[in-house]
Amino acid sequence: METRIVAFDIGDRRVGVAYSDPFGSYAVPGETYFRVGNFSEDVKAVAAIARERGAQVIVCGLPVNADGTESVQTEKTRRFIDALEKEADVPVVCEDERYTTLEARRDLAASGISAKKDKRKKAVDSLAATYILEGYLAKSKRRQDMKGEMKEENNDYEDDNIIELIDDDGNTFRFEHLMTFEYKNEWYVALTQVKEAEEAEAEDDEEGEEVAIYHIVGEGEDEHLETIEDDALLDEVFAEFTAQYEDFEDADEAASLEPDEE
Length: 262
Known about the structure:
Blueprint: E1 5-10, E2 14-20, E3 27-29, E4 33-34, H1 39-52, E5 57-62, H2 72-88, E6 92-96, H3 100-111, H4 117-153, E7 162-166, E8 172-183, E9 186-193, H5 197-202, E10 210-217, E11 224-227, H6 231-248, H7 251-255, E12 258-259
Parallel strand pairs: 1-5, 5-6, 10-12
Antiparallel strand pairs: 1-2, 2-3, 2-4, 7-8, 8-9, 9-10, 10-11
Helix pairs in contact: 1-2, 3-4
């Protein structure tokens, strides 16, 4: 399925633009948009760029501090992103843009463009947007690859999206895989337990579906799942899962999910 993605590096004076190929495989830098100083007009102009490119998903860089905390610039950018999502009427995903501008400037300096001021201003922002989009595409590919690996390992089940987990006491539980996702450079998996028909009927239909989130630890043969003991971290990770799940699945379904407190 063709999925055109457009990325923006939103600044106070300029907005860098990048877009994907029709299959969402790689990123291409576009023309930088110079803001006119009117918030509403700028939002409409950026939304128009997304429409011209046939965007089905918009990725926006979100500036945060080096330690991951938010700043005044973060709030300003969020305000622009919220308005853009309403204007463009397509899903908007935020991508951590730490160091992308610095990396773009370094690469341009190496190429010699840094000596030409006007050309540099146009190039830096769109190259930064390209890096933002490349990061998003890489994460999306990794999610799909990990999901495919989980399916392959469990291809004996009638439903390929079902996996089995064994606890320390040797008890086996069946789970449906919802999503594998990244948060603060760590990977997590969201699962929901598969219940027998009688058990499901006995539960209150109005209660949200419980989601179990595990931390993916190790690599290769040593890779395993660990529970998240820190309640504050669990809340943060669950919020991130909900946000990403809304981007790729039905928003109403995402809103009905509840974290597994056990």
